[in-house]
Each structure stands twice: as structure tokens, then as C-alpha cells.
Amino acid sequence: MESLTGKRKIIESKPLNFWERIYLPAILRGLSITIKHFFRKDVTVRYPEQKREFSENFRGMHSLKRDEHGRERCTACGLCALSCPAEAITMISAERQPGEENLYREEKYAAVYEINMLRCIFCGLCEEACPKEAIYLDGDIVPSDYLRKDFIYGKDKLVEAPLNQ
User: Fold this and answer.
1) 51 in Cβ contact with 77 (< 8 Å)
2) What's the rounded Cα separation, in Å, for the pair 67 and 163?
3) Which of 20, 88, 147, 157 has the most CB atoms lying inside 10 A of its own CB?
4) Which pLDDT does position 35 carry in this prediction?
């Protein structure tokens, strides 16, 4: 029967010679590759005893920064939450009360700031969208855990420690 395109390819199969029929050279070639792998340098990093070197553009865990006076930089503008494609950031803003001038930089601040690390894709768009340079992805690797609720990071885990401590 003729093919519709007329581009039929005829495949010829030649008979195997003696060495190909006993498969011994193919087995020895495979074993030699396996033995070569035994003498290669080990590429495994023994974490946590050894820390891996990361590139300059590595995006680690989020951190909310403070200014030079130890006040929180975040003004709860919501641009980081709007720019997040995974919708991992939620915040509730509040007004600064009298006497809290040394805690918050602006009159409005984030009373609740949470990042769901299970949803976060570490794209860095929240870092780029922040006009006050308050959020950075400069931390370490996000640690593993067993419960889902432990992956929702609030201000207690995200805000960096004040400089005077």
C-alpha cells in the first residue's frame, strides 16, 4: 500500500555479528561507565553541616526592614500584595497612635502583615513593587515543617531585629 505523502522510508535491518549477539561488549561498556562514576567527586552538599553557596540573585525568605532609627519601613500601601501573582501576602493597615512615633515611620502602618510561604513562588515582584524598600527576599532557605499553619509568617518572623538590641 502506498503512503499518502509518498515520503516512505525503507529501513534495512542487517543481521547482528557474533559480538553483538553475545552482548558482552555492550555489558562491559556499561560497567565501565558505572565504575567511572565511583571515582568522581561527590556533588552532594551535606546540609545543614555544610552550607551551600548561593548566587547574588538568590531569593530567600522574606524580611521586613527597619530604617536607621529602628522604625518599621512598611506603610501598608498594599502594593506588594497587589503585585503578588500567587496572592500570598495579606495585610491590615492601622493608624499610628500618639506615642508610637519611634515604632512606625509613617502615620499608617501594617498592623497585620502575613505571607503564606506555601503559596509564595519567590518571584521578587513584592520586593520590586515596594516604594519604601521595606520588604526584601534576602533571608535563608525557608525551613521545613509538618503543619500548614506554621508556614504562614507574620510580623513576628518577618520584621528584622532593631539595631539597638
Assistant:
1) no
2) 9
3) 88
4) 95
pLDDT in tens, 86-119: 999 999 999 988 888 878 888 899 999 999 999 9
Count Cβ atoms within 10 A of the Cβ of residue 119 and give its class: 0-12 exposed, 13-18 middle, 19 or more buried: middle
Q: Where are the alpha helices (DSSP H) in 39-93?
A: 79-83
Q: CA 51: distance to chain centroid?
A: 16
Among residues 124, 48, 126, 52, the alpha carbon closest in space to that of 83 is found at 126
Nearest to 70 by CA among 133, 162, 135: 162
In sequence order, the β-bridge partners of residue 136 are: 63
Question: Quick one: cell of 69?
Answer: 532609627
Helix, strand and coil percent figures for the chain, each rounded to 5: 25, 15, 60
Distance CA 117, CA 125 (A): 15
